[in-house]
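Marked as duplicate of an earlier ticket. Keeping the data here for the record.
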Amino acid sequence: MTGRSLRLGGGPGGEFDRLRAIFATLGAAGRELGDDCALLPVGGRMLAISIDLSLEGVHFRTDWLSFREIGWRATAAALSDLAAEGAQPLGVLVSLGVPSNVQRATGNASPAVQIMSGVGAAARSVGASVLGGDLVRSPRYLVDVCVLGFAQRPVRRSGARPGDGLWVTGRLGGAGLALAALRAGRRLAPAVRRRFAHPTPRITAGRWLARRGARAMIDISDGLAGDAGHLAAASGVGIEIALEQVPCSPRVAPLAAVGSGEEYELLVAMPRSFGDAGARAFRRATGLPLTQIGRCVSRKGLRMTDDGRLITPPRGFDHFPAR
């Protein structure tokens, strides 16, 4: 719920209806909300700040993940907002809630220590430090991570223009595949488990794309279809996606890939001049594929096709779905 755009970077849905109501109540005090990060000028540079809450039973389960993985995953999710801004992480602050009656521990490490070890590992992986935080008693585990970084050329959700190409980093669907297996009680292949438990915030990719003229960018935490709708709404453009062009993880169908959330890849609108040569340069620099999956158009809304046939996009994740 951070940012500078007056146009809320979200499409329809219960979650964004609530956010719009909150923004209206805040009035002038909330006039700069609505993007992945808040931006504050500090000493000639732009400070990017975001906060992301992970709650037991909503974002993770302790029978699916170790406490260290819970800490890593929560921190990676918050750092992904900096990646979508094209920012270099500086540090993280963490508010940690832990039940008082939980006695589980591994060796001499309590759950709180294990969670924070995962937080520290994720921060170190992108050159950031743990700057402080708070520890409270809570009915359920919660990990609330605030991230700070500097953005030389911030990329908002709101800069896409008709004619821009729409590109996505990496491959999609692995997190959704893991979640389906966990819910069914099936054993996970190691690579699939890593995708779910140990996501990588695309910091290097975001900074590279920002330097190469990215117009708009968002991380894929609510699913490609949902986040494409958020980017379209923020930019005031339409988006067309060709399902057959979406890069999928092994054993994942394209429609499942566009609905899979918590991928933490980047969806980016690039100028028309950015083409295959740019994608090859991106892969050399980051080791990741960059795939064009569609384009931005003047007609509003999200339009998805499968080999030219119009289909209904899957809904993105919504904390407050309509009943």
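See parent ticket for discussion. Residues 25 and 103 are 42 Å apart (CA to CA).
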